[in-house]
Amino acid sequence: MSNRITTLFNIQYPVIQAGMIWCSGWKLASAVSNAGGLGIIGAGSMYPEVLKTHIRKCKNATSKPFAVNVPLLYPNVEEIMNIIVEEGVKIVFSSAGNPASWTGFLKEKGITVVHVIANTKFALKAEACGVDAIVAEGFEAGGHNGREETTTLCLIPMVKDQVKIPVIAAGGIGSGRAMLAALALGADGVQIGSAFAVAEESSAHPDFKNRVINATEGDTKLRMKKLVPVRLLKNTFDETIAQAEAEGADAETLKQLLGRARAKLGMFEGNLEEGELEIGQVSAMLKGIKPAASILNEIWQEFLTEKQRISSLEF
């Protein structure tokens, strides 16, 4: 398949693996890139020196393009950006912040820049900043989410009608059917998080992966809307937050309940009750822990099958 996304990143399939904290190390990124997609190292859970190690290991593990995701509110963002330049990373996905702060710097270094947004307002701002593409993420997605709670089904066509740069759909996409639907809505490619979070190469704790693949419909909820909305799996911590929100807890109270390193505790260390378990609604459809290449191949084959089925329908 050849389109604006495969051409932009020089990849085989318009499938991007999301840069998820505590899941997206060099093993997952290189596996996805080797399979024909675009793997991403998630810098959000890495100290600068740790990121440098992951970038170097990823370069040794694949000759294919890969990217680094950088939350722009990261406290060491300047050091992170300098490492990215020094290590010769060619693609950066930015999120959680103003793309105007770093897009120009990265573009001057010849780096392709993609920014993650959750509404049309910020899609237009990102385009005006000069990014090469955007990820439009619907509220089905795991982890941090848009305050508007706009679903992928609505977000993609709204954004597509407003911008000229390529649009990558994210949120609720974990199958070939969902990928086909996203492209039908106008997306040029898809970004997939939850399905790769449970891949064999994901750095997430095995207990977290097993909890995800055993999730059922309704097991995730959007919480902490007074801080930054985040989609979580149900557990003791989630229940604590839900009760606090029902009682009218303010942002400061929620911040204290969240504490520090809560996502690391759950997703990386495997504390399934007190940890923060970030995952998308599509978790209810995930049924196994498989190699990243198998996940990508299954999605692509289903995409082709469903595309053929739709094209054969008589209207």
From TrEMBL:
PANTHER family: 2-NITROPROPANE DIOXYGENASE (PTHR32332), 2-NITROPROPANE DIOXYGENASE-LIKE PROTEIN (PTHR32332:SF20). Keywords: Flavoprotein, FMN, Oxidoreductase. InterPro entries: Aldolase_TIM, NMO. This is Enoyl-[acyl-carrier protein] reductase II. The keyword Oxidoreductase applies. GO terms for molecular function: nitronate monooxygenase activity. SMART domains: IMPDH (SM01240). CDD domains: NPD_like. The lineage of its organism: Bacteria, Pseudomonadati, Bacteroidota, Sphingobacteriia, Sphingobacteriales. The keyword Cell cycle does not apply. Pfam families: NMO.
